[in-house]
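2024-03-11 09:14:02 INFO receiving multi-entity request
2024-03-11 09:14:02 INFO entity count = four
2024-03-11 09:14:03 INFO echoing inputs for audit
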Amino acid sequence: MGFLLAQLGRAATRGYRCALMPIGVKPRETAALMRLQDGPLSQQELGTALDMDPSNLVALLNDLEARGFAVRSRDPQDRRRHLVGMTDQGRAALDEVVAAAADVDDEFFSALTQEERELLHELLVKIGESTEIPPPVEVAEAEDGC
Amino acid sequence: MGFLLAQLGRAATRGYRCALMPIGVKPRETAALMRLQDGPLSQQELGTALDMDPSNLVALLNDLEARGFAVRSRDPQDRRRHLVGMTDQGRAALDEVVAAAADVDDEFFSALTQEERELLHELLVKIGESTEIPPPVEVAEAEDGC
DNA sequence: TATTGTTATACTCTATAACTATA
DNA sequence: TATAGTTATAGAGTATAACAATA
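2024-03-11 09:21:47 INFO inference complete, emitting structure
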């Protein structure tokens, strides 16, 4: 079943990329901004929340910061950390972007009723929680590496 | 919601890659073999079934064919077409691979009950059908490009 | 010594256009 | 002319290791 999940996920991402291109924001950047909505995160936290390696997050944040959508500031508590927050400009962009993404979702999940969509959402969140993906502040040790 | 779908899809793929590596088969190759189970397909058909561009399918099939898991043969009806079928060796490999993939699924969806998994599967299939992904023999014209 | 962010690099995936052979 | 497969290539995404600054 994971194959189906992956395939649909790719298709959804393609839809996002298509719809977000005119706005000039990538799907991943959108996901990052959405994560930052609820307050600043360290890059580690953001990385685990987005399920991407911190090293790969650097370029993405450089881009967001260059365009004035996000800001990095050193955490006074632990000067190793960068607290990533979003700017007002970022918030404004996010509004626009979220609207476009909602349209994509609307078409992508058009085969499902509203109830089914909510149900699907619940199921996905449940999986995400079990694989410690969505909850931002929570670090898991993989140990497996693989 | 598509972002969540995409993220979980990536995580699932990573799990597959991890579990399939020792067997020497990639997630996409596994998906391809599964598609070929029910009979030969043209590369176009296989491409749409896997939601990947036919041009990118070439290398994948070269690999499968080199290892004796699949065979390409010209369609006598239309000599432009390659009918892609799987060999007995491919079938044997698939058995092994499917078992490993099932283990991955089992862990990945461990947060869901059996009922919930079936429900999720139904919902995903429904989405897939609406975006003309899963049904192998069915071509859609995008027109959008994008 | 361990952790955060960074850099660099290699590898895979994806997208696109152009080519060939057949129709 | 249009289609199936192929080739080549550029771009995006991903994984890994090593490094500097800080703890």
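2024-03-11 09:21:48 INFO post-check: Residues 134-143 of chain B have pLDDT under 50 and may be disordered.
2024-03-11 09:21:48 INFO post-check: The longest strand of chain B covers residues 70-74.
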